[in-house]
Specification:
alpha/beta, Metallo-beta-lactamase, Chain A, 6-stranded mixed sheet, 9 helices, 34% helix, globular, binds zinc ion
Length: 250
C-alpha cells in the first residue's frame, strides 16, 4: 500500500492510500479538491472511496467536487451523519472497512470524530484528535473524551505511525517543550523539523514510540509532566485538561 500525503489549504493534510494489487485508492479527508485531484492525476490513481473523519469545513470542503469528478463513494461515522455532508455509506466505531481500516472513536476535538487505523501498514490517521506532538482543540468534545481517545490510541503498537490532519508540528513541539519531554528526543526533533519544512516535506507521520517521549498528552501519567503543568499529584485526566487549557491560553 502506497501513501501520498497532500498539503491542502493553509496547513491541512489529506491522505491517499493506494493498493497496487486491487487498484483501489482511498482518500482520508477532503480539505480541498484541486491538490488532491492533481496528486491522483500525477500518480495515475483512480479514487475509489473517501473516508471523512469529522464535519469541520476544512476536512470536507473539497468533498462534493471530488465526488462529482470521480464518483468515489463517501463514508463517514453514522453517529455523526447529521452534520456530515451527505454520505453514501456509514460506518460505526469498531468496524473494519474496505482497504483494511479499523474505526476508532477519536472524540474530544469533536464528539464522534473517528481515527482510522490500518494495522497492515502500522499507520493511524487521527485527524484533529491526538496530533503530532500535541492534540486538537476541544470544540464540542470534552477533556475526558480526549483523554479516553488518547488512551485508545496509546494502546496501539509502538511502531504505529501517527498521521494528523494539520501541520502543527512546530508550534506543538514548542509548546510540548514546557512539559518535561525526553531531552534527547526533543533536541533531535528540534534539529530535524526546520529542515522538513524547508524541503516541503510532511511533518506528520511520527511513530507512537517517539510521541511517547515528546507529546505531553501521552505523558499525563508522569509526575514530572503533572508538575510542569502546575498540578503536581493530580490524576492523569486532570493533567490532560490542565495542559489543554494552557494551550488554549498560550
Ligand atoms: Zn477539526
Amino acid at each position: 500500500m502506497t501513501l501520498a500525503i497532500i498539503r491542502c489549504l493553509s496547513d491541512n493534510y489529506a491522505f491517499l492510500l493506494h493498493e497496487p494489487e486491487t487498484g483501489e485508492t482511498t482518500l482520508i479527508d477532503a480539505p480541498q479538491a484541486v491538490p488532491i485531484q492533481a496528486e491522483l492525476a500525477a500518480r495515475g490513481w483512480t479514487l475509489t472511496r473517501i473516508y471523512i473523519t469529522h464535519h469541520h469545513w476544512d476536512h470536507v470542503d473539497g468533498l462534493e467536487a471530488l465526488r462529482a469528478a470521480t464518483g468515489a463513494e463517501v463514508w463517514g461515522n453514522g453517529a455523526d451523519a447529521h452534520r456530515l455532508p451527505p454520505l453514501d455509506r456509514t460506518f460505526a466505531v469498531g468496524d473494519t472497512l474496505p482497504g483494511g481500516a479499523q474505526v476508532i472513536d477519536a472524540s474530544g476535538h469533536t464528539r464522534d470524530q473517528v481515527a482510522l487505523y490500518f494495522p497492515g501498514r502500522a499507520s493511524v490517521f487521527t485527524a484533529d484528535s491526538l496530533m503530532t506532538h500535541g492534540c486538537g482543540r476541544l470544540f464540542d468534545g470534552t477533556a475526558d473524551e480526549m483523554f479516553d481517545t488518547v488512551a485508545r490510541l496509546s494502546a496501539l503498537p509502538d511502531e504505529t505511525l501517527l498521521y494528523s490532519g494539520h501541520d502543527y508540528a512546530q508550534p506543538n513541539l514548542d509548546f510540548a517543550a514546557r512539559y518535561a519531554p525526553d531531552a534527547g528526543a526533543l533536541a533531535a526533533r528540534q534539529a530535524e523539523l526546520p529542515g522538513l519544512a524547508a524541503k516541503g516535506l510532511a511533518t506528520t507521520g511520527t511513530s507512537l514510540a517517539s510521541e511517547r517521549l515528546l507529546n505531553p498528552y501521552l505523558r499525563c501519567h508522569l509526575p514530572q509532566v503533572a508538575a510542569a503543568a502546575g498540578v503536581p499529584g493530580a490524576n492523569p485526566r486532570a493533567v490532560l485538561a490542565a495542559i489543554r487549557a494552557q494551550k488554549d491560553a498560550s
